[in-house]
Each structure stands twice: as C-alpha cells, then as structure tokens.
Amino acid sequence: MTQDKIKYITGEFWTSKQRQMHSLHYAISYRASFKPELPDFFINKFTNKYDIVGDPFGGRGTTALQSALTERIALSNDVNPLSERIVYPKLHPVSIKEIENRLNEINLNKDIDISIEEDMSMFYHPETYKEIINLKNYLKTHRDNTDRFIEMIAISRLHGHSKGFFSTYTFPQISIPKYRQQKINESRKEYPDYREIKSRIIKKAKETLKSGELEILKNNSNKHILTTNDARNLKDWKDNSVNIIITSPPFLNQVDYIQDNWIENWFCGIINDDLKDKIIQTPNLNEWTQFISDVIYELYRVLVPNGIIAMEVGEVKYQNKILNLDEIILELICSKHHNKQFNVKEIYIQSQQFTKLANCFNVSNNKKGTNTNRILVIEKI
Q1: Which residues are CB-contacts of 274 (< 8 A; sequence separation ≥ 6)?
Q2: What are the tens digits of pLDDT across the range 328-339?
Q3: Which CATH number fits domain 3-81+215-257+281-380: 3.40.50.150, 3.90.1150.10, 3.40.309.10, 3.50.20.10?
Q4: N or C: fewer beta carbons within 10 Å in the chain?
Q5: Where in the chain is the domain with CATH 3.40.50.150?
Q6: Is residue 209 within 8 Å of residue 23, measured between CB atoms?
Q7: Which residues partner with 316 through β-bridges?
Q8: Using the 8-state DSSP alphabet, how is residue 72 labeled?
Q9: Alpha helical stretches, state H, 11-57
Q10: pLDDT tens for residues 303-316?
Q11: What pTM, to 2 d.p., does this model score?
C-alpha cells in the first residue's frame, strides 16, 4: 500500500450548524472535542444496532453517547478520570423531578471555614463558594445516578461568561489560571457576585434533558463500559470484540488537558500531579508518532476482523509550518509493521468554519489550530 493509492474524499458530510444533535451532547463545554455529527456519520456508515463502538480517548463522551442513542454498545476510555465523571451520567440520565427532589434534600448552607479551602476568591463569591464546597463534600460519599447527574451538571456550571455559571465572567471552555482571572476582574472592574447554585443546576439540567429519549439510553445503560486506562493498554477491552473505533487522539501539544481542566479536576477531587505522567501531551513529533503507533497496535487487538478505526486528526502548526497529522499516521501505517495488519480505506476531509468560541481563542481559518476534520478510515485485515 502506498500513499498515492489512498482515496481522499472532501466535502461537508455533516452540518456545520451548531447544536443540532441530542441536547445531552451539549451538557459540558470541553476543549478539543469533535461534533456529535462526526461519530454519527461513521456509526451509521459502518455499524448495525447492538454493535460495539469504542473510543480510547473518550473526552466528554461524544462517541459513547451517540453510540448509545443509536442503540449500539459503548466502550469509552480516557486516562483522565474526569472523563468518566462526565460520560457516566450521560449514559445513565435521570429525570428533572429526581434532580429537584435530590437538591431539596442537600443542605448547601452548612457553615464551613472557607479559609482552609483552595483560594478561589477570584472566581466565586464567598457564599457561592460555600455552596460549591458543600456540594463537593456531599458528592464524595453520595454516588447514585441522580447524584452523579447533578455532579456532571455542576461541573458544567463551574466557570463561564454568563449569569448562568457559578463564577464571575471568565472562559467557559477552559479553566484559566488564577492570575489570569485576577487580571480579567481588574480589566472589567467586575468581581464575583453571589450566584445561588441549585437554581442554576436545575436550569441547565432542563436544557440538557430537553431532547428526551431517556428510555433509549436507560434500556442499554448497564451494557456500556467506561475505563480509565492508558490507550496503549486497554486491558478491560476484550480481544476481537469492537466493531468500530471512533476517536480523536491528542494533537501533539495543542491542548493542555490538565491545566485546561484544573477547576473541574479540583471539584472532582482529581489530583493534577497524578495525571502528569499519564496524559500524553508532547511537542516532540517523534514521541507523538510512537505513541500513536502503540495505540494503533493495541486497537488491532480489540477490533473484530475487518473492524474499522475512524481516527479524527487535523492540521497543526508545527515548527512554523502547517502539518497534516493524517499524513503522519498514513506514513506510519504504510511504512511500519502495521502495514500487514491494516488497510487505510479512505481519508475524509470535512471542511468547516470556525465557531464564535474558536474566535475567542484568536483562531482564524487557515492560520492557527485545526481548520478541518481529517478522518482516516482504517480497516483491520
């Protein structure tokens, strides 16, 4: 197999419009996540009902949720346990009434000494912070499906740019450092005001559940498997069991998955230092290529014969040049030991325009960041 024989298919295979799929997909803003239309396209193209769909880089669970909504079985893995805290509630949704009743049972006004807690005064009013800490403490020991859904919604409200969030004005998609938040407060001459959190959780929960279809999710909820392993060693995934992998690995060091989620990790009790040796985010192309090579080798083990990998990558700025990561992976598969195990069927290039949120990060088309979805479709042979 040589690169010149690969079929490239370019076009708009799913809508560029925002928020067109099930409302649960939009429960949480998450850096470097793809649109749910992407896994939906490949699920419908390559699988049947009750097939197993895997994602070794689960993130906010886009592949897993779309798999469940289309009555497939989801395997979702992410080395950061934050992913499991986000994905599990999406696959085990509860009703608004259950959320309201549970919140009425939780006392968020217990007296606590916030001076011994993490200093978050640049983000939260003291009374808001007291409620957050009380909820955080409650969730340490209360873990049924209703509690976990409330936790997921609370995670989504921890920081953002509107009155619907717990924090003063800040970025919704990334957890910025404290010193940067202090500068934002000073430049805007705005400081944290009181934000009551129960009503905000309920409002967001209603938005998140408005699409319904909860019975579809509940019917197969116990069949899905969520794991927190290194993607190079999916030890809880069985040999020859997965029909399709739909995933997006880290794009070199384009995203700092630890720093960008530090507030979410703090709320969930996840220690950032514990993740430093687990999450791969390297600026070294050789290290990144070896990592992807090892991941692909592991995916061969778990795929059924003729199983498919749909791997979404993109173009990144690397050493002052635009680098198409699909070309790196293609060369890897064609030139190394993988070439006897996989066949690159085709590469889809989905053209897209940047969203308003991307423009907030000073990303403009064809200049910085990822401008297209580039999906390698790889078949196990």
Answers
A1: none
A2: 898 888 876 555
A3: 3.40.50.150
A4: C
A5: 3-81+215-257+281-380
A6: yes
A7: 323
A8: P
A9: 37-46
A10: 999 999 999 998 88
A11: 0.91
